[in-house]
């Protein structure tokens, strides 16, 4: 009988402790949500709630960021200073490095700061700027990769007319069109995205302000404008992809007719890295944006987002440029 009384009393106290603990967690959660609502911003839920894991992720991001900065800065420096690297191909590589330098700086420093400070709050204005620069630079990346594929196509398929077609003035106008088109896409995205009424709790299950996650916070059909912009940009991106594919069909059909094994190897060493960069960036971006967003994203979702935001700017200098013998020689001369 005494044991039964002891068990019942213990169960009574344990149940009350658990109830108090759950009520305490709910109250804390409600306080946090109230603060987010009052501060008129967003809460970024990154990779982990554990502070030690956040520091580990911050260090990993810092290493990748420093590698990306170093590689892209080296390419910008040697293509600017070396007089032998002033052809259109190296001009476009310099623009790609400048773009990658900017692209990785949009998301990674904010993620590092949030992890180290254990404060995942971003203001409304910060989120607008991040969406603008991210969408602008993402589209600019697609556009510049398309221009680079056309440059390779012209160099291999029309070598006698290459200097006329890829005149320095034409290259400059092409890059102006690329950067302006990126800015226009960013303006379209922020105009459509931030005209939405956010009536759900402003929690973004991502380490940056991602457009699909923002759409999930809408409670009405006013997100149709964003879908229209995304559909339009998807059609244009598809046109760019078809253009790149056709360029490489002509490139490979021309290359296979080259009798010299050395010339064949040189052409493939130039084309295949560019083709890998295009395929990797487009495939991971499409996978991330076409996948349905959930309230509890998996590790795979976060890894895909890293693959198209952090990895390409880090690998592009190594894949596209620093394997090039002329770039290696220019780097040795600079050092």
From TrEMBL:
Transmembrane helix found in the keyword field: yes
Taxonomic classification: Eukaryota, Metazoa, Chordata, Craniata, Vertebrata
Predominant place of localization: membrane
Name of the protein in its database record: Olfactory receptor 14J1-like
Gene that this polypeptide is encoded by: LOC106145553
GO MF annotation terms: G protein-coupled receptor activity; olfactory receptor activity
Parts of the chain that traverse the membrane: 12-36, 56-79, 173-192, 223-246, 267-290, 302-322
Cross-referenced PANTHER family: OLFACTORY RECEPTOR (PTHR26452)
Membrane topology: Multi-pass membrane protein
Domain G-protein coupled receptors family 1 profile: 71-320
A GO cellular component annotation in the UniProt record: plasma membrane
Keyword RNA-binding recorded: no
Pfam families with a match to the protein in the record: 7tm_4
Localization (cell): Cell membrane
